[in-house]
Amino acid sequence: MNAPLPNWVDLGLIPMLNLAAAFLVAGLVVLAVGESPIEAVQVILYGAFGFGEGIGFTLFYTTSFIFTGLAVAVAFHAGLFNIGGEGQAYIGGLGVGLMVLAFDHHLPWWLIAPIAALGGALFGALWALIPAYLQATRGSHIVITTIMFNFIAASLMVWLLVNVVKVPGTMSVESRTFLPEGRLPKLGGLMEFFGLDIGGAPLNASFLLALVACVAVWLLIWRTRLGYEIRVFGANPSAARYAGINPVRITIVTMLISGGLAGLMALNPVMGEQHRMFLDIGGGAGFVGIAVALMGRAHPVGVALAALLFGVLYQGGAELAFEMPAITRDMVVVIQGLVVLFAGALEFMFRPTVARLFALRAREKPA
Amino acid sequence: MSLDAIILLLDSALRLSTPLLFACLAGLYAERSGVFDIGLEGKLLASAFAAAAAAAMSGSAWVGLMSGMAASIVLALIHAFACITWRGSQIVSGVAVNFLAAGLTALLGQAWFRQGGRTPTLASSERFREIRLPGADLVADVPLLGPLYSQLLSGHSLLVYIALLTAPVTWWVLWHTRFGLRLRAVGENPAAVDTAGINVTWMRYQAMIVCGALCGIGGTYLSISQSAGFVTDMSAGKGFIALAALIFAKWRPMQALGACLLFGFLDAAAIRLQGVHLPLIGETPVQLIQAAPYILTVVLLAGFIGKATPPKAGGVAYVKER
């Protein structure tokens, strides 16, 4: 079962087989509700790429998923499973929102944006700190504590939005709308450069920050001492300890980075789209990040591509729900589940078969 | 607070505890056998949908129950297939189960019934209705004990009583039968159990089937007993509260009963105290009460209220030979 296989098989063919299986089953689900999978794919692709506004929305969703995907991926490298991206993004939204509300009367957007980004990252990181600390020093399972912290974040944010942030005398549970200085510029101009009109799509400058974050995470994981320590700790905690790597420090630092990345995600919806603080800022992106990180095999390039795929599914899925009455946007959640199942939990399922085929071929053609 | 109000509060606590208790005991079987299951939420949701859909189509609550259990067992077997047979990560697999259930219930609900993800409203003959326990009317006038029996204990659906019985039955099965001994043993030291000639894989599969069946009853209770139909995301985090209760109970059945009753009580209190001004505290911090199960569990996990030690082999796939 563990016979060595060429790299391109382990890193290319088998992940592709896993994905193919996920989409095959997704196709069967579409068939089961009485629609054509081929047509569904066409509608999704058209919705996501067929017109400028569609592309704008696709990249808007992609932005959020890159951040949450990177958050989960960084934690993976240290052998930690951060299921709390949703809560960290939510609290990150509090950080972003408070910063903008504090400064949008006084500063221009290009000064507010970095402050808000820092606020989001800091709040997200702090929300990951307690689970990290408990895992590192008291052995509480980080999966359980981060799940619990998602719910605690939701309750806390409802309370804050209703009792502290809400504009008195209004019904809707949200903060006041930010002044124009508190909004991230849209990327309409940049996209026009490529001959695209994104129309009303909320694609904004945080997309560029997401791309920078991909490069930064790559540099961190593969080009720094800290990244090396993270990977050693993830591969073998006892060897890491023996090599003088402090497990408490690595666990906490990794989770702070992970939570910070999740917190940054809030820039996109809060400062880039809605221009206010609102209920459910994460909007499920924290959970999509799990699928994205698994599919992208925790590599920033893979994460960016997987985030794009989920961006396509989210935007195309909206179009699909419009075109095919039997299908709702929940189809995307089904695909998410199938990707996590086949690319994550069942990642070893095809390997023995592939290995056997390779062994057969090797016997027929002695090298 | 009058006696009536207290009884009313406890009564709704008991109702709200029931799905928690099923899911919590389901998780107990899985985790005692060494399989972590964060997919309880998904199984509750899937069975709630399957039960309501089947009851609406067949007109029978019992068909609903069977379908609910079947849906939940299928998801449990997917989890088992991924992390027992293929040794995939139990956490990842649980996440997948939750996504699948959330997506499929909403998608199929809309495709089949076209009511925005709802199932048709069930008639009372298609649901598990309240049962009056024998003698409830006779003793109703006895002071204190009378109302306790006739209003609090009596007048629940069959599934509530099954839930309350499942806790001691689980205790008996796990600590007084051969099956239970073996189940706990594969969760602590599968290699030793394997050496004794017992099939570790099959033991864990059996545990997962029991887990699926119990979650299935819990989900069925949600949609065709507590309510008269399925609505999107109706489990609303109950599976995770059950998981919290399981840890809070330190993986023990009778303590699980206590934890679920406590968390159900908190839920009932949060609903009832909405907008009520309490002396000293001011307006009830409803969100704080709602978050209490999660906060309590984190505090417990941090080791501040005794120590919660999970089954030793939990979360690790068993590899027979190296």
SSE diagram, text form:
The complex is a heterodimer of chains A (367) and B (322).
Chain A: H1 7-32, H2 37-49, H3 52-77, H4 85-103, H5 109-138, H6 142-165, H7 188-193, H8 206-223, H9 225-235, H10 237-242, H11 247-264, H12 267-274, H13 285-295, H14 300-323, H15 330-345, H16 351-364
Helix pairs in contact in A: 1-15, 2-3, 2-14, 3-8, 3-11, 3-13, 3-14, 4-5, 4-6, 4-11, 4-12, 4-13, 5-6, 5-11, 8-9, 8-14, 9-11, 13-14, 13-15, 14-15
Chain B: H1 3-32, H2 40-58, H3 61-85, H4 90-113, E1 130-131, H5 145-153, E2 156-157, H6 158-176, H7 178-188, H8 190-195, H9 200-226, H10 238-248, H11 253-272, E3 277-278, E4 282-283, H12 286-301
Antiparallel strand pairs in B: 1-2, 3-4
Helix pairs in contact in B: 1-5, 1-6, 1-9, 1-10, 1-11, 2-3, 2-4, 2-9, 2-10, 3-4, 3-9, 6-7, 6-11, 7-9, 10-11, 10-12, 11-12
Question: Biggest interface: chains and residue counts?
Answer: A-B, 49 and 47 residues
Tell me about the biggest sheet of chain B? Answer: 2 strands, antiparallel
Number of domains of chain B: 1
Rg of chain A to the nearest angstrom? 22 Å
How many E-type strands of chain B? 4
**Could you say what the CATH topology of chain B is called?**
ABC transporter involved in vitamin B12 uptake, BtuC
H-E string of chain B: HHHHEHEHHHHHHEEH
* Cα shape of chain A: globular
Largest sheet of chain A: none
- Helix percentage of chain B: 55-70%
